[in-house]
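Sample entry was shown:

___
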Amino acid sequence: MSAPITAPAPPTTSTSPFTPLKIPFFRMLWIASFVSNIGTWMQNVGAVGLMTELTASPVLVALLQTASALPVFLLSLPAGALADLVDRRRMLLATQTWMAAVALLLAAVTLLGLNNPWLLLTLTFLLGLGGALNNPVWQTVTPELVPRQELPQAIALNSVSFNLARAFGPALGGLVIGYFSAGAAFLLNGLSFLATIYMVYSWKREPQATSTLATERVIAAIRGGVRYARFAPAVQHILVRGVSFTFGASALFALMPAVVARRLQLPTSFYSMLLSCMGLGAVIAAVTLPRLNRRLSIDWRVTLATAAFAGGLLGLGYADNRWLLYGLLTLVGMAWMLVLNSFSVGVQTVVPRWVQARTISLYLLTIQGGMALGSVVWGTVAERLGVTVALSGAAGWLGLTTLLVLKFSLRTSPETLDHTPARPRLEPVLAEAPTPTEGPVIITTTYRIEPRNRPPFTYLMEQLGRIRRREGAIGWGLYADLADPVRMVEYFMVESWEEHAQQHERGVSRDEADLKNQIRQLHEGPEPPHVTHLLAQHYRPIPDSLPMVPGSTRLVAGTAGEAT
């Protein structure tokens, strides 16, 4: 076995769209991912073909898509939480191995003639479970492998891998099925995972900071990720823009087969050509991406690409010329890649690493939700009013979404944000240390603020309160002492002492440090603001057999942390 490959490589200032491929590990992982994507598309073609052979029920055929998509809705949030809590390399190995094993099992039962519709649906669902667990952690790998300034190109190259596989995978799957069988396609898909497994196994990941605390519970981690997104405007803007775009764009994927078969009355091969044109457009967009990034802001890129996608929908609804449709679908492929690349880069760079996978899982869930809901809505409109009306409605919707830039601008999410902590937090002075599970904990900070400085102080404190909630506070408030006009007390509450200790380990973010510097300039007096830590107390009867230590609320023996 070859020696493990170290990543990432030293930063580079090149703006070539292919610069990330100069990093050996990223290049080989990209190739392995492309092979795996080819296998996935072969799997999809084989599953549909096999199901139509096993049953004539259109419901069971449609359930294949449900079996693939349902795991995303069930596991996106837990998968994001796990990816933030466990070692990402080990999680990738586990998910890739799971998918390889399921694909090979599906190949075996098919080649042996033991498959049936419900077994095919079950194994497709199990394969989808692996994909749902894999997706959030897979998207967090790229920022670890390439320098931050090359992240847009790297994500674009990943999109190229997917689109090239979409262009060639179905055709290769059709050839394999035609010459051999669906079982052979499933076998090749299972084997395609082996290259990715080897590459992840060879990844000599840089040592990560380890916590001395117990690992967060998954449910608490999910709540923390949702809470972070709720109080992070930059994340909210991406999620709103993402779901609004995919809701309209879903009409293309939902209605394009009907356009080809019913309106144009052309063979399925024309549909495949349109998909290939979209893949070509994505490749063109990836090549031109660095130049576009230099000339256009993220808001302009998304706005123009959304308008171009809307134009493609109108063309699909009204145009009859084949070559015009080829050109329009190439433009649509470019627009699709540019918009999703902008969202993907944004969602991976506006948050610190400790919550990155959870934020990505929220983004993926939002995108999938927009696609699923849009497909139902535009499909219903097409059934009642026709595909042309549905495509026109979707184009109009996308046109309206360009106005979202006025309220949900993406310029607050630059691609060069630095989430390195500005400084560590000062350790609290404690008479006795609580156990990690004790809580809730209330932290108070007392300031001395002159009445004339109260308006700017309260404004800054409200910004700090948003950061407190984003970082894990379940409650926050600012109060004035009615007996002392200059005494102001801020409090925030966290669920447990462990949660507060994790906040200390993460350090003080740069925006929090900047706010605190401004706030402390308004503080009066020679002493710094006074901080206290208050731990919730609960009454518990004291057993008669256990004497008390004089002057203490602690027991001589018994469970640590119990108090009267």
Summary: The first helix runs from residue 24 to 54. Strands lie at 5-6, 203-204, 441-448, 475-480, 487-494, 530-535. The domain at 232-418 is CATH 1.20.1250.20 (Growth Hormone; Chain: A;).
